[in-house]
From TrEMBL:
The keyword Acyltransferase applies. It comes from Kineosporia succinea. Residues 352-452 form the Enhanced intracellular survival protein domain. Residues 238-348 form the Eis-like acetyltransferase domain. Pfam families: Acetyltransf_17 (PF17668), Acetyltransf_9 (PF13527), SCP2_2 (PF13530). Residues 73-82 have a biased composition (Basic and acidic residues). The active site is at 165 (proton donor), 456 (proton acceptor). Keywords: Acyltransferase, Transferase. This is Acetyltransferase. Homohexamer; trimer of dimers. The lineage of its organism: Bacteria, Bacillati, Actinomycetota, Actinomycetes, Kineosporiales. Acetyl-CoA binds at residues 124-126, 132-137, 160-161. Belongs to the acetyltransferase Eis family. Residues 61-116 are annotated as: Disordered.
Length: 456
C-alpha cells in the first residue's frame, strides 16, 4: 500500500516494507536515533531480528511538484536521493485485559484473563534533517489506516517522549517505577496473614516457602523463562505476550536478549519452576531486570534472594508497578526509594465496540453513554455501554451522553490504570451530570491494576 498525504505533508510518500527492506529499514531507523547498527544485520540477538516486515512503513520525500509546505518547510532537499527519511513498524502481540470483577462460573479467578490482539508500534524515527515537516504524521496516518483495514482493534507503543503521541489518539495506560533498597535496610517483615486466620493446608503452603532457589546462567534456561513469562502474562492485565520467535532469536532486552545474565530460578516443593529473577551484579549494585512469578511464595523467596546477595550495597528492581508488594513487605517501609515513575504502555483504540466488549468490567451493572471524539481520524461516535455481571455490550446510540471524551483519554482508561474521575478532575473528560464520575469509576474498576514490563 502506498499513501499520499497531501493534507498533512505534500512532499511525503509512505510505502509498506517488504522482506527486502530489512537493511534499509535498520540503517534508516538507526540514523534517526543517532545510533550505529551492529553487523551483520540479520543475525539473532538484535532487537530488529523480531521485526515483521509485512507490517513496516518507510517514508520518502518526493521532488514532484507540490503545493507550498508552509512554515514547516525549512528548505530541505525534497528528494533524499531516493532513500527513506522515516520508519515505523508494528509487532503482533496479545494484550491481557482486566477481567470481570465477579467472574461467571466459566471464567473463575484461576482461569486466564481476556486478551486482545494488538499492534505493538515500534521503530518510529524521522531523520534529523527532515523533522517537523509532517513525516511522522504521514506515517501515523498510513499505519492507523492500515491497521484498521487489517481489522486490528488496538495499537500500543512505548513513547520516547510524552509529548509526541497524544495527537495521534494514544493515551498513557500503564505506569512503571524503579525501587532501590539499601542493603542495611533490607529486612522483610514476617507475613501477618497466617497469624489472623486458622491455618489450613493451603495457608501453611504460603506461610513457609518449601521451594528452592537455584542460580542458572541465562543461556541454559530460555525455555523455562519463556514458559513462566507466558503463564504470568495471562494473569496480569496490561501484560503483553512475548512471541516464541522473540525468545528463539534473542530479540529485545534482557532476559530475552543475548546480554549475559544470571537467573535466580525458584521451584516449588514439587520441583516445578514458579518464578525467576534476571539480574546482574556490578560494583555493589544488584540490578534486577524483572521478577516474574506465578505464586506469592516464589515472589517473596526471590525478594529474599535479591535483597540479600553478598557483596552488594543496594538492590535495584526495575520495571515494577506503583503498587508493588515489596514496599509493604519491608520491615522499614520507608526503605524502598521509588524513582523513575513514568508512563509505559500507551493505548490507541481503533475499534471501540470490540475493545470495550472484550475486556471485563466492575461488578456494578450500569448503562454508560460515551461520546468519543477522534480528531486525528476525523471521527465522532457515541456508544451505549451496558455492563452486566462484569461483561458488556456496546452499541451505537443517540442517547444523551454521560461522558464526552477524546479517544486518547479512552485509551488511558482502557486498562483501568487511570480512573475516569482523575481525568474529569484534570479537565480532560467532560461529565454531563453530577453522578457521571462515580458511575464511570465503578464501571471501569475491576480491582486489577494493570502492569506491563515488556520492551519493544
Ligand atoms: C514507539 C516509538 O518508536 S517511540 C520513538 C520516537 N522516535 C524518536 O524519539 C526518535 C527521534 N525523533 C524523531 O525521529 C522525530 O522527531 C519524531 C518521530 C519524534 C517526530 O517526527 P516529525 O516528522 O518531526 O513529526 P511531524 O513533523 O509529523 O510532527 C507532527 C506534530 O508533532 C509535533 N512533534 C513531533 N515531535 C515532537 C516531539 N519530540 N516533541 C513534541 N512535539 C513533537 C510537531 O511539532 C507537530 O506538531 P503540530 O501538528 O502541532 O505541528
Amino acid at each position: 500500500m502506498a499513501t499520499r498525504t497531501p493534507r498533512d505533508s505534500p512532499r511525503v510518500r509512505t510505502r509498506a516494507t517488504t522482506g527486502d527492506d530489512l537493511d534499509l529499514f535498520v540503517t534508516t531507523v538507526h540514523q534517526a536515533f543517532g545510533a550505529f547498527p551492529e553487523t551483520p544485520a540479520d543475525s539473532p540477538g538484535r532487537w530488529w531480528s523480531a521485526l515483521e516486515l509485512d507490517r513496516g512503513i518507510l517514508a520518502h520525500t518526493t521532488s514532484e511538484p507540490t503545493e507550498p509546505t508552509g512554515p514547516a518547510d525549512h528548505g530541505e532537499p525534497a528528494d533524499h536521493g531516493g532513500r527513506p527519511v522515516g520508519t515505523t513498524a508494528s509487532y503482533t502481540f496479545d494484550l491481557t485485559l482486566p477481567g470481570p470483577q465477579h467472574p461467571t462460573p466459566d471464567t473463575g479467578p484461576e482461569n486466564p484473563l481476556p486478551t486482545i490482539s494488538v499492534a505493538g508500534v515500534t521503530s518510529v524515527g524521522v531523520l534529523p534533517t527532515h523533522r517537523r515537516q509532517g513525516v511522522l504524521t504521514a506515517m501515523m496516518r498510513h499505519q492507523l489506516t492500515d491497521l484498521r483495514e487489517r481489522g486490528e482493534p488496538l495499537a500500543v507503543l512505548l513513547a520516547s517522549e510524552a509529548t509526541i503521541y497524544g495527537r495521534f489518539g494514544y493515551g498513557p495506560a500503564t505506569h512503571t517505577t524503579q525501587i532501590t533498597v539499601p542493603r542495611h535496610r533490607n529486612a522483610l517483615a514476617a507475613p501477618r496473614a497466617h497469624t489472623l486466620v486458622p491455618p489450613t493446608p493451603e495457608s501453611r503452603e504460603t506461610k513457609a516457602d518449601n521451594g528452592t532457589v537455584e542460580i542458572v546462567h541465562r543461556d541454559t534456561c530460555g525455555d523455562i523463562l519463556e514458559t513462566l513469562y507466558d503463564q504470568y502474562r495471562r494473569h496480569q492485565p496490561g501484560a503483553l505476550s512475548r512471541p516464541h520467535h522473540w525468545w528463539a532469536r534473542r530479540a529485545g532486552r534482557p532476559p530475552i536478549s543475548c546480554a549475559p545474565r544470571y537467573i535466580a530460578l525458584h521451584r516449588d516443593h514439587t520441583g516445578t519452576p514458579d518464578g525467576y529473577a534476571s539480574y546482574t551484579l556490578d560494583q555493589g549494585t544488584l540490578t534486577v531486570d524483572e521478577t516474574i512469578t506465578t505464586t506469592t511464595s516464589a515472589l517473596t523467596a526471590l525478594h529474599h534472594f535479591t535483597l540479600n546477595h553478598d557483596l552488594t550495597q543496594q538492590t535495584v528492581l526495575k520495571h515494577v508497578p506503583r503498587n508493588h508488594p515489596l514496599r509493604t513487605q519491608l520491615s522499614d517501609t520507608r526503605a524502598a526509594q521509588v524513582t523513575n515513575d513514568t508512563d509505559w504502555l500507551w493505548v490507541r483504540i481503533l475499534d471501540i465496540p470490540r475493545a470495550l466488549t472484550t475486556r471485563g468490567w466492575g461488578s456494578t451493572d450500569a448503562d454508560l453513554v460515551l461520546d468519543v471524539h477522534d480528531p486525528f481520524l476525523h471521527e465522532h461516535t457515541r456508544h451505549h455501554l451496558h455492563t452486566h455481571n462484569g461483561h458488556a455490550t456496546c452499541e451505537p446510540t443517540d442517547r444523551d451522553p454521560d461522558l464526552t471524551l477524546d479517544i486518547r483519554d479512552l485509551g488511558s482508561l482502557y486498562l483501568s490504570g487511570t480512573t475516569p474521575s482523575t481525568l474529569i478532575h484534570a479537565g480532560h473528560i467532560h461529565p454531563h451530570h453530577p453522578e457521571a464520575a462515580a458511575l464511570a469509576d465503578a464501571v471501569f474498576d475491576t480491582g486489577q491494576p494493570p502492569h506491563c514490563l515488556h520492551w519493544f
